[in-house]
Amino acid sequence: MDAFEILGIRANPKTQSDLIRLHKRAQKLVDYYWKKHKREDAKRVKWAFEKVKTNSGLEMPKDPEAEAASAVPDAGGASPASPASGGDGDRGLKRKASNQLNDAEKRREAIREKVMLRRKASEVDADDKSKRQEQIKERLAAKRVMKKVPVRSEEEGKKAVIALMAATATDANGEEGGDRKGHFPLLCPISIERIKTAARGNKCAHLQCFDLESFLASKATTCPICEAAISPPGDLISDAFLTLTVGSVADDTVNEIRFDDEGDWTVVAGASSGDDSDDDVGLDGSGGNDMMFAATPWSPGPGSPEPEEDEDAKWEAEEAARVAAEAEAARKKEEDARRAALVAQIVAERAAKKAEEERIAAEKAEEERKMKALLPFIPKGRAAKPKVLEAAPAAASSSTSGALETAPGLDAQNENSYVTVELTKPLGIVFEANGLPHPGVHIRSFNEDGAAAQHGRLRTNYQLVGVDGASVVGQDLDKCIETILGTSSQLIKVTFYRGEAEHLYGKAKPAAEWLQGMLDRVKEGTILPSPPLEKRDTTTGKPRVKIGLDDGEEDDDDAEL
User: Fold this and answer.
1) Is the dihedral of CA 511, 516, 519, 521 positive or negative?
2) By CB distance 3.0 to 4.6 Å, which of 411, 462, 513, 560 could disulfide with 496?
3) Measured between alpha carbons, how far apart are the two ends of the chain, in Å?
């Protein structure tokens, strides 16, 4: 790689003024490449200038005060180059040591300058990188908005151009408000570059367009041509016909075309832009210098290293990767939150299930406790008999005579389906709550020596309906027991439904008014209690009678009546 070719010169500078002018030219090239974001080319220019300066043997001028200080002679009055006599040996050593110190100081100063240049370059790189990142973000945001802008098809766009041409009034010279009729500039009025996506406001009545991406990146709110208010993306429209027309103009130097009344276009004569000439300062060759600057700026040739990759594409790729990473992180965060919610739901369901099991166990324990609370009402003289809670319906004594099952299909709103008995406390009945879905209680079993078993009219699974004319329909076991125990009289009337629970509490259940009316009649005595069944001796077939003893006690056989 030739340093002369990079700097655009043909020979080394021969004077210090030439070197200064060459340094100015190199600095201009460096600034130019920095603005174009071509850092490698700027580094090549710096390297070429240093090489030319080294080969020429010239030095850039230093501070005048430093030059004057270096020209001051020693304290002894002798020049550094003049010989000395007498103490010349010592003075020579001192001068040599002083020169060495000066050289070391110069080297340190050069190192400090290089370090400062590197720091400045790194700061510029950081600022440039930040600016480029902001530009890329704005460009990507503009591209996202571009996808929301409505697009006019190629056919509709051509029809719109023809309509605009027909509606445009022209004078004798073909002038239209200062612009010639049908002329369409290919350069965007915002970016002054070739239009890539032709667009205009949906209320604009002019043919000229602007580049959609440049308009969105500029964050403008008015049309740059007619200054009509535009609120993107709803007030914008992209024209596919004009976009394809601009793209079909292959010559990059053409800046304007012209449409005819049929929508066809031609290149406007004289609408091409020429290449800009190099206005850099060149050497005049004064002082016998035959060096001349090249006519055109340097660009990397076939033998030069490849320039660095496009910075825009690089930053766009980095920004796209960052957006994708953020989206993936948000997705993972949402997935973790969903899993955490699912785990919390499972834990809550398990806790609710455990609480329900504990509640059922507690209710069962309370029910057993209240059943055991009825044991004191069993006569003490018959404690040797089987326990009430352990007695099964099949183990009931034959004194209960008859089947122990309920009669199916009984009409719940018929008085014949109910039975009312008058019993003394303790009743000798073990009640049990109905299973779901029906409320209320039914007869589970009898104490074979109790009043209910002796009466003989009741059966297991009968549904408890009323106590002394008070309704207990649908009440739980605790409430029913409290109602029975809360009666003041020792002799109570108990009303039962002889059918199943589903008939008393299901769809065919009796009306509440009718049921309460029946219980009121039981309380008033209109409905009399059923008499006890007459039991007969199994050997003789004659009725068994209850005989009282003289001492006030009952015979065991008579107590079973």
Assistant:
1) negative
2) 462
3) 133
Cβ atoms of residues 470 and 519 within 8 Å = yes
How far, rounded to the nearest angstrom, does the alpha carbon of residue 294 sit from its chain's CA centroid? 61
* Structure-block tokens of residue 44: 């090549």
% pLDDT > 70, the chain? 72
Give alpha helix (H) positions in 147-236: 154-167, 212-218
Smallest Cα–Cα separation from 204: which of 226, 221, 185? 226
What's the token pair of residue 540?
């003789």
* In contact, 291 and 283? CB cutoff 8 Å: yes
| Strand 236-239 with 151-152, pairing | parallel
Sheet holding 265-267, edge to edge: 183-185, 256-259, 265-267
What gap in Å lies between CA 117 and CA 135, rounded to an integer? 26
Which residue in this structure is represented by tokens 């043997």? 57
Q: Which residues pair with 187 in a beta bridge?
A: 194
Residue type, 415: E
Tens digit of each residue's pLDDT (9 = 90 or more) over 80-115: 444 444 455 667 777 777 777 788 788 888 888 888
DSSP for residue 199: E
DSSP assignments along 21-70, one per residue: HHHHHHHHHHHHHHHTT-HHHHHHHHHHHHHHHHHHT------HHHHHHH
